[in-house]
Amino acid sequence: MDLGALFGSFDNFVSFTIGGLVFGAIYALIALGYTMVYGVLQLINFAHSEVFMYGTFAVAWTFIFVHGTSDASWSLGEALPTLLLALVMAMLVSAGVALLLERAAYRPLLKKGAPKLIALISAIGASFALAEAMGLRDRFAGWVGLEDDLANYVSPGKARDVYSNPVGIDPKGLFDIGGYTVTDVDLLIIVAALLMMVALDQFVRRTRFGRGIRATAQDPESAALMGVNSTRVVQLTFLIGGLMAGAAATLYMMKIGSTRQNAGFILGVKAFTAAVMGGIGNLRGALLGGLVLGVMENWGAAVFGSQWRDVVAFVLLVLILLVRPSGLLGESLGKARA
Known about the structure:
With 338 residues, this protein is mostly helical. It has a single domain, classed as ABC transporter involved in vitamin B12 uptake, BtuC, CATH 1.10.3470. Helices cover 70% and strands 6% of the residues. The chain has 13 helices and 6 strands. The strands form 3 sheets. The chain has a two-stranded parallel sheet with strand order 1-3. Strands 2-6 form a two-stranded antiparallel ribbon. A two-stranded antiparallel ribbon has the order 4-5.
């Protein structure tokens, strides 16, 4: 294969590859929420994209609270203390939304033994409700008389517009690979995603809570007979998914710097695609699927044009399902070995 003919030059090939890995790392962290819930409940949590979206707003609002609304450009070192605070806030907000989602949209149906299709419809409805709630935040503030106090966060009449972080992270080049300069932001995103993935994998495989998650995923009835509280396990599963979504939101805002009330939709679909590609219900598969998807869609954009980026991602999903329906790794969460 002539890389020069496809990408213009080897430098461009490296650039598209590393860029794909950066976005793939973000997809992978979001995909963990889908794969965790599916592994335990055998359900697709389509509202997980909104859990991520709320995390992106938490990041932007943290920077506004610390810095104000004036535009600024900081280096990664200057922004690091605020980024750490934003990471904590995003993870807390996303985890809180995820737990609220479990309590309101899933638990009542699970207690009644509702069919899985009903729970799926409930998740879709919750997804729209959460997105619309963020799109109406200016009206909520007006109803309680706080539109002036919260003007920096709920700009009247602009709640559905793109919402930008006032502080842009200025990437700094670290080293070159094939003519492409890898920046500190690129490296931080990839390394942070890998470390969080490893930490979660070890948590599920080696801790008491992780054994409870795996036991419930493998055989809920037997796990309950052995004293595993299935309700707690489901709560913990949503909590972990929300925490990972908050981390992904922080990395996303570092790279992109803007969000809106429906920002989670396409990213959520792609993260779901990554989870399916890797083998939904498989934590390591979520990471592999995210990285492969990010690289392949970037390569597709280079070859066919940026307007085909999303098409390439979903065509790849169809091909994976045709060739290997269980995904690249395929092993379920319940069969994960310690």
